[in-house]
Design a protein that fits this description.
Elements (H helix, E strand, L loop, with lengths): L8 E4 L8 E7 L4 E4 L4 E6 L10 E6 L2 E2 L3 E5 L4 E3 L1 E6 L2 E6 L9
Antiparallel strand pairs: 1-2, 1-7, 2-3, 3-6, 4-5, 7-8, 9-10
Length: 104
């Protein structure tokens, strides 16, 4: 069971965007996630008349390592670790500090 999933609200723990919050848009691999509004890079693109795209500088969301993000607990307003327990025969993710089930 992975700690960080698509749709989770996370907070960045390290790097140039430390302290920023965002939602996980995509899970690139087992170790990397793309978070909306975090780790944005400028990319120069060529125009492509066949696809109808114009050239110029475009913002691109880059992946960030999962060790640099943590689940955001809205109840406490801080980053939180994830635990797991079995509820009604299903394994669910919980916040370590409060024991509440993570809603995702």
């Amino acid at each position: 069971m992975s700690n960080i999933r698509k749709g989770d609200e996370v907070i960045v723990l390290a790097g140039k965007d430390k302290g920023k919050r965002g939602t996980v848009a995509q899970r690139v691999s087992a170790d990397y996630v793309v978070v909306e509004g975090v780790n944005v890079a400028k990319k120069a693109t060529k125009p492509n008349p066949m696809a109808g795209t114009t050239g110029g500088i475009v913002d691109k969301l880059m992946p960030i390592h999962v060790s640099n993000v943590a689940l955001f607990n809205a109840a406490s307003g801080k980053a939180d670790r994830m635990g797991s327990k079995v509820v009604d025969g299903k394994k669910v993710r919980t916040y370590k500090s409060t024991g509440e089930v993570v809603k995702a």
